[in-house]
Amino acid sequence: MLDDTKKIFIQESEELLEQMENALLEMEQVPDDAEHLNSVFRAIHTIKGAAGIFGFDAIVAFTHPVESVMDNVRNGIRLVDPDLVALLLKCKDHTANLVESISDGQEDISEALLEAGQTLLDELNPEQKSGALDVVKNKRENIEVSDRKNASDDNWVISLDFKSDALRNGLDPLSFINYLKRMGEIVEIITFTHDFPCWEDMEPESCYLSFRIALLSSASKEEIKSVFEFAMDDCELRIIPPRSELEKYLALLEELTGEELNKLGELLIQVGALTEQELSNALQVQSSVLSDDAATQEVKPLGEILVEQHVVSKGVVDKAVEKQESIREKIAQETQYIRVDADRLGQLINLVGELVISNAAVKLLVEKHDLADVQEVVNGVEGLVENIRDHALQLRMVQIGDTFSRFRRVVRDVSKDLNKDVELVITGGEAELDKTVVEKINDPLTHLVRNSLDHGFETPEERVAQGKPKKGVLRLNALHDSGHIVIQIADDGAGLDTKKIRKKAEEKGLIYAGQELSHREILRLIFEPGLTTKDTASNISGRGVGMDVVKRNIDALRGSIEVDSERGKGTLVTIHLPLTLAIIEGFMVGVEKERFVIPLSMVEECVEMDTNEWHLDKNSHYVNLRGQVMPYIKLSEFFGVNYQHGRRGRESLVVVRVGRAKAGIVVDRLFGELQTVIKPLGKVFQGLKGVSGATVLGSGDIALILDVQGLIGLASAKASDVKTLESV
Amino acid sequence: MSIVTRELNGVHFFEINDELTIYTAAMMKQELQDLLSKQDELEISLEKVSDIDSAGVQILILLHQQAEKKGKALRFIKHNRQVIDVLETLNLEAFFGDPIVLPAKEFEYA
Amino acid sequence: MAKTILVVDDSASIRQVVGIALKGAGYDVIQACDGKDALGKMSGQKINLIISDVNMPNMDGISFLKEVKQHPKYKFTPVIMLTTEAGQGKMAEGRAAGAKAWVVKPFQPPQMLDAVAKLVLP
What we know:
The complex is a heterotrimer of chains A (about 725), B (about 110) and C (about 120).
Chain A: H1 3-29, H2 34-54, H3 57-74, H4 82-103, H5 111-124, H6 126-130, H7 132-151, E1 156-162, H8 173-180, E2 185-191, E3 210-216, H9 221-227, E4 235-240, H10 243-255, H11 264-271, H12 276-292, H13 302-308, H14 314-336, H15 342-369, H16 372-395, E5 397-399, H17 401-417, E6 422-427, E7 432-434, H18 435-456, H19 460-465, E8 472-481, E9 484-491, H20 498-508, H21 519-524, H22 547-556, E10 560-566, E11 570-578, E12 583-591, E13 594-599, E14 603-607, E15 614-617, E16 622-625, E17 628-634, H23 635-638, E18 652-658, E19 661-667, E20 669-677, E21 691-696, E22 702-706, H24 708-727
Parallel strand pairs in A: 6-8, 13-22, 17-19
Antiparallel strand pairs in A: 1-3, 1-4, 2-3, 5-7, 8-9, 9-11, 10-11, 12-13, 12-20, 14-18, 15-16, 16-17, 18-19, 21-22
Chain B: E1 3-8, E2 11-16, H1 25-38, E3 41-45, H2 54-69, E4 73-77, H3 81-89, H4 93-96, H5 104-109
Parallel strand pairs in B: 2-3, 3-4
Antiparallel strand pairs in B: 1-2
Chain C: E1 4-8, H1 12-24, E2 28-32, H2 35-42, E3 49-53, H3 61-70, E4 79-84, H4 89-96, E5 101-105, H5 109-119
Parallel strand pairs in C: 1-2, 1-3, 3-4, 4-5
Helix pairs in contact in C: 1-5, 2-3
């Protein structure tokens, strides 16, 4: 049970029990004094009612029979004797024990206590004890009582104490309570009469009324509060939400994604646990304490005031504070960051790259001169340098989650504009990648997300008609996969219409009519310039400029993009990206004396020289590797390498793959894997085809890093040129 | 006087013949106090209560408590529809413990 | 017995709309076009609720409210003041004079009936 609910109940019960005891003690002296009789009856009656409102079933079950006995006594059916008074005193004590066990925080009343209660009840109704049937009946009655009360577990509890001027101000508590019936069902109401003044002191126009109300209602706290809007100045109102409502608050608090540090009150208002009015009242209390005794008194936390005023339950406040703390931590984390100019970071990484290379040079020399004692030191330095390099690169790593989160707004706004119902599900937001990559991925991602919302998802009506859930789901996922980050954009929308794509591609002359294409090949056509399948262009995803631009952006990041789609089921776009643009896991090859680095992730396999596994078809520019045909490019020819010692006869083949496109690269030598820092090419070389960068080797030599994607493109172009010629 | 004496089948009782509201509360308190001080046993009919509000309910509650204290037998009788509604709304029937009898006419329709 | 409500507003259309709504809900309605007119029409008869505009000729709503709160027979009568968004400044003055309930114009009849139901029993 809830703390504040308990407190109200316990406090009131204790007062009533004290009255009951006093009255019972008086009854010992004067047994049939009507006033005391009634006082006892009222006390037990009110406790029973309050226990019912607050959902303390065990107390209801015990006090109900006691109340019945008192009712009989009051009506003269049962006579008062000292034994009965003694028994009633025990009943009073037992009730106090029950109340106490609640205040101890026990959810369930102990078996012993229940038994003691039953014994007392049996003594109270000796005639019922004899018949087993009656006991059952008695029990059943109790069960019925508790069944009813169980349902009331989910009631709003409204505590309403009117101030003495309420009636004079033209307010009638009865009218408000009557109006409250419109909000739901008043399950129980107690009108407090035990602290009324005596007749002589009573001012007829003053208000002495207090109520405790259990309301079964689906209305919000604000709505219930609005019932008493005119009485705000003239009553103390406390609204305690039902358990289910509390769970709702807690769930909402859990879900809140705070970007900025909200004040506690604002958080609580956001989830509906607190009304504006309640907040301003509590703040007033807070500031009045402050001004009363600013020097000595510490400011009470708002949460504490709210709990004290029984406005919000402790559980909810705790949860909100916890949430606030986590947001604060997040912000603190953010403020711990030092903003560094990206260029300076770039310089650092460059220098670290140089250091790696210098270290490699030192190592070479040490090996060359066979300096065993220096070797050890150099190895140590190498380890440190690698550490520094990793950390330097780590500096530029950011989580992709923040980039993903930005799409919440895009999805919300765009789907609203399009009258679509789409939920964004983000997973893998903790995956990290280089900041420069993140920056460059934002535009393509935006385009893909908008595309999916615009073309992918059907309207809710269409979805329902197709037996799909009304709400579409758009998933953004990120994961690490062998030195790459994989980003997936998946929707459960209509999927791509391959027939339409084919038709468009034919119209545009991208393929010729009747050309045999696999499902994937057709899908890949959407990345061709000028192809859009939506009949009408919209301002969401535009006209035709789209997927080809996206692809170009991804290519520029040394990444790849693939699309998979099934008509009616949805579309999945998968993007592979390198974690960083600054460093590369490469595979070094050689042609004559030149060294080239192929990004390792794109190397599918290497086939040693002089095997029978592969054949070059020089006419058609295809290489046949174990029956698999693919375009190839000969690096020596491509870069026009001059052979000083005459042409070597033996060559090797490196099979590279980007996405699903494969090609062979024919080289002279295979050197193996290396990790190296990419150094951008100077402006003069930026237009260079087939090369994306350069790196300095430990020996001081320069190695060019191959632009595999570009090479594959060139190789296929060459091959298909031949093919086209042949087919003419 | 808002409270009049009535007699039915030789039994005397008092009848509140006015509204029982904030407007009449002060006057009612005075008249009821006078009544209570003179009688040891009294029945008060609520049949002719033309209107009742929270102030009126308070008066009835306090009068009831005062009668108990003074050891006097007080019973409210002949509650009219509006009075019953109010007592029901505030769950006060058990407090007064008076048997509430629905007027026969109303009972038929109920 | 039906409750009696006094509607005071210089706008005949508002009086009419409120009047129709209240009569439809089973109340008796007395209409007056300003504070002075209202005081004259009350003339000692039982009024359960007053609905009054603030800005009116002859006697405005605040002065009328003060008169009502002085009157032995009406000092406990609940009053709903009609105000406009722009006239919020008058609220402080109204509150000081004892107004507890406010309805902001323009309002829909159900809003008015809700406000009335919170103040008087049917």
